Amino acid sequence: MKRVITYGTYDLLHYGHIELLRRAREHGDYLIVALSTDEFNKIKNKKSYYNYEQRKMMLESIRYVDLVIPEDGWGQKTKDVDKYDVDLFIMGHDWEGEFDELKSQCEVIYVNRTEGISTTQIKTELYGN
Predict the structure, then answer these.
(1) What is the DSSP string of 44-110?
(2) Where does the Cytidyltransferase-like domain start and stop, copy by copy (predicted)?
(3) What's the CA gap between 94 and 110, in Å, rounded?
(4) Structural domains of the chain, count
(5) 103 is catalytic
(6) Choosing from 42, 44, 79, 103, which is the catalytic residue?
(7) Annotated catalytic, 83?
(8) What pLDDT was estimated at residue 32?
(9) What pTM was computed for the model?
(10) Burial of 125 from C-beta contacts in 10 A (0-12 / 13-18 / 19+)
């Protein structure tokens, strides 16, 4: 079984998120999503509309996702790859090169994001932030 992992906040879930998860799952048999906790988002100066439990419940209802785990900090990725026997680490292309150190543990792929949609764009258009 090929295990894939990806990370994110997944706030204001939209079709770009679904497309990323779909493409990630196509690369393997089991998709793990590490979801940023509310506390970690504060460290990153991010504010989510939905809290961690709500975002987790939404992700768990998506057919491409097999397991949702909490992401509590920047340094946990290497531990997660080992703990969950990950074969492939996938992130959006806007993170290109940021996680290349994981290549000694697993394959690393940066996929193109879905054009024309982002949570930031939605928030800006809805709330003017």
Answers:
(1) TT---SS-HHHHHHHHHTSTT--EEEEE--GGGHHHHHHHTT-SEEEEEGGGTTTTGGGGGTSEEEE
(2) 5-124
(3) 8
(4) 1
(5) no
(6) 44
(7) no
(8) 98
(9) 0.89
(10) exposed
Contact, 17 vs 124, CB < 8 A? Answer: no
Task: Look at residues 82, 91, 85 and name the one whose alpha carbon lies nearest to residue 23.
Answer: 91
Predicted local confidence at residue 37, as pLDDT: 98
Cα 26 from Cα 67, distance rounded (Å): 15
DSSP strand pairing (30-36 vs 107-111)? unpaired
* Contacts for 17 with CB less than 8 Å, ≥ 6 apart: 8, 10
User: How far apart, in whole angstroms, are the C-alpha atoms of residue 23 and residue 65?
Assistant: 11
Per-residue pLDDT of the chain (129 residues; tens, 9 = 90+): 999 999 999 988 888 899 999 999 999 999 999 999 999 999 999 888 899 999 999 999 999 999 999 999 988 999 999 999 999 999 988 899 999 999 999 999 999 876 666 666 666 666 665
Residue 105 sits in a domain whose CATH number is 3.40.50.620
The two structure tokens encoding residue 13: 């879930």
